[in-house]
From TrEMBL:
Family statement: Belongs to the short-chain dehydrogenases/reductases (SDR) family.
This protein's record includes keyword Cell membrane: no
Gene assigned in the entry: fabG
UniProt keyword terms in alphabetical order: Oxidoreductase
GO biological process: monocarboxylic acid metabolic process
Organism: Paenibacillus lemnae
Gene3D superfamilies found in the cross-reference section: NAD(P)-binding Rossmann-like Domain (3.40.50.720)
PANTHER family referenced in this protein's UniProt entry, alphabetically: 3-OXOACYL-(ACYL-CARRIER-PROTEIN) REDUCTASE, 3-OXOACYL-[ACYL-CARRIER-PROTEIN] REDUCTASE FABG
Gene Ontology molecular-function annotations: oxidoreductase activity
Protein name in the entry: 3-oxoacyl-ACP reductase FabG
UniProt xrefs under Pfam families: adh_short
Keyword flag Transport: no
Length: 255
C-alpha cells in the first residue's frame, strides 16, 4: 500500500474538475492547470459556447479536455456528470468548487426564492460535488478539494448578507471536511478572494470601482490569474500539509 497522501501518478497525469469554469476565475483556473498538461474537466450550466472557448484555449496548451453541463442544485445531474467522467477515464484527483452566484441588495428586500436559489448553488452544490467525488480520493489516499469562497465570508458585507452568509458556510464546510478527510490523505482548503476584475463586479459603475480600489491598500483589483495561481499551488502534491485553511488574496484589504 502506498503511503497516505502520496500520489500514485505524476501531477501532470492527474485530472482536475473545475465547476463554473466558463468564465472569470473558473476559466483562469482551468487554463492555469492546462498550462502544465493536466487533464481538464470544464463544468458549466448554460454557457455552452463560452465553455467551449475555454476548452479550446486549454487544448492549445496540450491538455486533454472534457466539457460537462450540469445544474449543481440537482443531485441526479451531478451523478450523471460523474458517470460521464468515469466513462472518459477522467474522475477528478483535484476538485475545484468554483461555481457560485452573487446577490446585492438589502436583507429586507430578499425573497425566500432568492435565498433558496443562492444557497442551493453556493452551498448545496458544493456539498453534492464533494460527496460525489471525494470517495475515489479517499480510496486512492490522495486528493485535493479547493473551494472558492470570498473575503465577505470572512468579514461580511453590507447589502451582501445573503452572499456573505453562503461564503461563510463554505469556509465552515471547508474546515470541517478537512478534519474529516485528513486521515485519508485528502486536503480541503478554501481561497477567499477580495475584489477581482470579473463580471461579478458588473453591477458597479466606474466611479464605484475607483472608490473600491481606493479602499484596497494594493490600490487595484485582483486579476483572475492571481487567484488561479494560488488554487494551483494548493493542488500540488507538495502542498499536502496545508489543509483546513481559508486563504484570502485581497491586496491587504481585509487582514
Amino acid at each position: 500500500m502506498k503511503p497516505m497522501g502520496e500520489a500514485m501518478k505524476p501531477f501532470g497525469e492527474m485530472t482536475v474538475l473545475v465547476t463554473g469554469a466558463s468564465r472569470g476565475i473558473g476559466a483562469s483556473i482551468a487554463e492555469r492547470f492546462a498550462s502544465v498538461g493536466i487533464n481538464i474537466v470544464i463544468h458549466y450550466m448554460n454557457s455552452h459556447e463560452a465553455a467551449n472557448e475555454v476548452a479550446r484555449r486549454c487544448m492549445a496548451s496540450g491538455a486533454k479536455v472534457l466539457t460537462v453541463s450540469a445544474d449543481l442544485k440537482d443531485k441526479e445531474q451531478i451523478l450523471r456528470m460523474k458517470e460521464k467522467l468515469q466513462a472518459h477515464g477522467m474522475e477528478p484527483d483535484i476538485l475545484v468548487n468554483n461555481a457560485g452566484i452573487s446577490h446585492y441588495g438589502l436583507l429586507s428586500d430578499i425573497s425566500e426564492e432568492e435565498w433558496d436559489e443562492l444557497m442551493s448553488v453556493n452551498l448545496k452544490g458544493l456539498f453534492l460535488c464533494c460527496q460525489a467525488f471525494m470517495g475515489r480520493m479517499v480510496s486512492e489516499r490522495f486528493g485535493r478539494i479547493i473551494n472558492v469562497s470570498s473575503v465577505w465570508g470572512l468579514s461580511g458585507a453590507s447589502c451582501e448578507v445573503l452572499y456573505s452568509t453562503s461564503k461563510g458556510g463554505v469556509n465552515a464546510f471547508t474546515k470541517a471536511l478537512a478534519k474529516e478527510l485528513a486521515p485519508s490523505g485528502v486536503t480541503v482548503n478554501a481561497v477567499a478572494p477580495g475584489a477581482v476584475d470579473t463580471s461579478m463586479l458588473n453591477h458597479l459603475n466606474s466611479e464605484d470601482i475607483r472608490l473600491l480600489e481606493e479602499e484596497i491598500p494594493a490600490g487595484r483589483l485582483a486579476h483572475p490569474d492571481e487567484i488561479s495561481s494560488l488554487v494551483y499551488f494548493l493542488a500540488l502534491p507538495e502542498s499536502g500539509y496545508i489543509t483546513g485553511q481559508i486563504i484570502s488574496p485581497n491586496g491587504g484589504w481585509i487582514t
